[in-house]
Structures are given as C-alpha cells and as structure tokens.
Amino acid sequence: MDRILLAVLIQLGGLIAGALLGAPGLVLGANLTVGIAMLVALWPHERPQPAPAPAPAPAAPGGDGSIGAILDAVGDPVLLVGDGRVAAANRAARTLLGEHVVGEDARIAIRHPAAAERLLAQDAPGDAQPTELVGLGGRDTRWEMQVAALPDGRRLVHLVDRSAGHAAEKMRVDFVANASHELRTPLSAILGYVETLDDEKAGGDVAVRKRFLKIMHDEAQRMQRLVDDLMSLSRIEAEKYRAPETAIDMAGLIAETHAVLRDQRGERGRDIVTDIDESLPFVAGDRAQLSQVLHNLINNAMKYGRPGTPITVSLSRGPGSMIRLSVEDEGEGIAPEHLPRLTERFYRVDSSRSRALGGTGLGLAIVKHIIERHRGRLDIQSTMGKGTTVTALLPPAPLRLSSNGNSAVTGTV
Questions:
Q1: Which residues contact 120 (CB under 8 A, 6 or more apart)?
Q2: Which residue has the higher pLDDT, 120 or 226?
Q3: H-helix or E-strand containing 279?
C-alpha cells in the first residue's frame, strides 16, 4: 500500500481512537499510539487478499512485512512486542536502539529500568499513562514511552522524543532564576541604604548620606545595565531568523568605535591598537548590533587585560569568503574548562570580580546571539598567563546590497 495512504490512515486511526474513547483531551502522542494499535490489530482483516505468488516476498527488516510497512510510516520510534520479545520495529526504532532489536527481549532492546518495569506490568487502565525514560540513547535525552495493548495480547510501544522541550524549559527556568538573583542583589542594597538614611541620626550626617547615596546610585546603574542587556538580548532573539540586509563597512565601524572608547576610557582607551585590511568587502549586517559586538568585546579586553598592555582589534580575511574580526588582550587568560560555557547567560569565571567591574554576565551571550543572527561563527581561545582572543567570522555582503540596505549593482569595496 502507498506510504502516504498509510500515514493518513494512522492519523485517522488516532482521531477515531480519541472519539471512541470519549477523551478528546488526550494528547496527540497518546491518540497516535492508540491509532497505530487499532490499525495493527485490524490490518489482517481489512486488507485485500493478494493474488497467489510463486514465492513469498522477503519480510521487511522491521519484522512482518505488512506491519513493518505501517510502522515505518511513523516518524517516531515504534516497536511491536509479543511474548516479551520485539516482533517488529520501524526504522526510527532501529536507528535509536540498533538494527539487532527485532527478536530480542524487549527489556534488553530498550535498555532502561523504567521501560523494563513498565513492560513487565500486566495490562491495566494505567497502561495509557506515559513513562519517562531519561538517558535513553544519550545522557541528556528524555523520551516518553506510550504503551497500547492489542487484542491478541501483544503491545505497541511508541517512543516520543521530549529532549528539546525539556532543554528549553530548563533554560527558561534557569534564566528566570538567574535574572531574579541578579536584580535582587542591587535592589536589596538600595532598600537597605534607604532604610538607613530614613534614620534621623544616620541621615543627618552629610558625609554618611553622600557615601550612601553614591552606593545607591551605583547599584541603580547596575540594575539599569542589567535591564538594558536583558532587553537587548530579547530583541536579538526575536530577530534571529531574519538575516541582516545591510552592507556594513566594518573598517569604518572599528575606527568609529576606537575613537569613542579612546576618548571615554582615558589611559586604558589609548591602549587600543587596530590592524585593518582596507581591501576587505563590506559585511552583511546590522550596524547597531555589530557596534554592540565591538563595544562588548573591547570593553571585556579592557577589564580583564593587564593595565598598560595593548588591546589589538584586527580585521582580516578568514577562511573561504568569510571576514575575520578578532579582539586580543594580554591578561591572566581563562582556564580551558571555562571556555565552553563563556557564552552562557550569567556565567562568570570570577563572579565577584565581574560584578566589581560592572559586568552583567550577559555580554558574551549577546555577542554570540548577534553573530549567530549574522550567520557567522564565534570562537574563543585563551592561554593562561598570556591572554585571550575572541574571533568572529562574518559573511560578506552580497553585491546586490548597498550600504543603506537598498538594492544596488555593487555593495562591496
């Protein structure tokens, strides 16, 4: 039978099962599992009888040929279990568990304690409840196992991958917890000093009042920076699937950023050194976001590089047609175990030092998301005692783009 027809029948089977059971609120995965079970149970009676053939066709790798065709139409891993052994398995199941699973004991085939306990249990109303399998096929994976009983005593096992949803939920929970902690710390300090100043004795001392007001001002500015970074990160993520469509002169943007920081940062600003290849084409980008990348990377180099040492900003040709932007400092460096996590939100190598220097813990996360939106790549290399180099590879602007984002015959230099 045509695979498309099989897929349609499976979906209809899920809908019919939901209607017959009188439970329209069942999740799609449960309805799909029951629908497949119904089709498997009904298949031998519903299919037309084939004409006699000279020789029997070889069975599909997943088990019985006809049932294997039904199961293969499902994208999720599905197994048919009878007498405690795997009678059939679709391609997705064999990819996850191995080609050898057909004919094996089901408890060995799935290789998970929760799955073994579920498959040993007798059929019961609770069979409709999903079982969570953590670590099946990988340490960070999460699968939901649905089991449906067939009239002939066999069971249909349907596995649904929930890893991505769980990871996204964990990221959301961690982000809210970290953001709340980062905001609560300066807010607690401000409230404490306000209560102190409300005291007539402490508030009447001019020197004490000025010192407390300065601390409150600094903490309020820290909260403002954090809120600004959170809003910036939110805007960048909202635009991540829309590629920038403006040709940006990175050499000119670096020169502009250099001039601003040199005037604003005093002695440390004069440590910035640029090495620019003027023959490079423009970059396809968002000017404001690329400026933010430069400011974040150079400010980090100023904070963590040794005073008086150069901060080198380079623009050169990268691999293929890519353009390489790099910012290098001469500081203490970063231990190798920290490098993979540097772009995580609120991750700090030295929390107390980062906060003392005014960091929010979001700078490199913002840089990473901007580079990803520009379809580029970010790399961080560091040597303990020598310094750190952050490199971004950016694609050149297409010839059809002008420097203001409008169509043009040429848009590169």
A1: 107
A2: 226
A3: none
